[in-house]
Amino acid sequence: MELKTVSTQHVPVRYLEGGSGPDLVFLHGAGGLTAEDPFLKALSEKHHVYAPLIPGYGDSEECGEIRDMLDFTQHSWDVVEALGLKDPILVGHSMGGMIAAEMAATQPNDVSRLALICPAGLWNDDHPVADMFSLMPYEMPQYLFHDAAAGAAILTAGRNVEDPNFLQTYLVTNARQLGMAGRILFPIPERGLSQRMYRIKAKTVVVWGDSDRMIPPFYAHGFKKGIAGAELVSIPEAGHMVILEKTAQVVEAIGRLG
């Protein structure tokens, strides 16, 4: 995957591009994205992948003009337009799934294929989404992965999470990224999507890890019910980071969109 830059109305946007095949736009979750991401590599084997970074992520500039859900949605459409894409397959994970769903709801005639992977965006008081803003680094693996030990190794890449230098870098990066993500996820990740999902016309597949402790699988049924004709693919022995734990199965589910 090659890191590039495209200009938009408010801010230059960094994005990763690679692969060949049908155009696919991948919107990342609150944890961000890197060129080494194995999910992107798997997607790029069958698609021409474009993965824009939300401003404030990676080495991208922050953007004060992107303040609420509508801003995030319109900015994402600005990126698609700037890339010269017409009706790409739209895929979003977690926060990115929330944005992708909003994009498909606000411009239903511009999205024909939509994949939502453990998306945020709905809320039920009896099934609260985990408060990611209050979690310490050592707590994240149990919320993100079915296999917490393996997940911890992936997240830390073998580094000691108790090392002050690691913690400092982690916390600074996290604060910068979550400062942006918090505009649509804090205090709860709900901005009225449930009232707009009926507008989605795209052929939709909803993918969820059965062991997701960040956004409970309860919400999978809300998305399936809210989007006409949506197909639900539940993946066992996978958590919120199903894209890393069961990469091939997620790619196969996306492939059902044609």
UniProtKB/TrEMBL annotation:
Keyword Ribonucleoprotein listed: no
Record-linked InterPro entries: AB_hydrolase_1, AB_hydrolase_fold, AB_hydrolase_sf
Pfam families: Abhydrolase_6 (PF12697)
Gene3D superfamilies with a match to the protein in the record: alpha/beta hydrolase (3.40.50.1820)
A Gene Ontology molecular function term of the record: hydrolase activity
AB hydrolase-1 domain residues: 24-253
Source domain of life: Bacteria
Record's keyword terms, sorted: Hydrolase
Stated name of the protein: Alpha/beta fold hydrolase
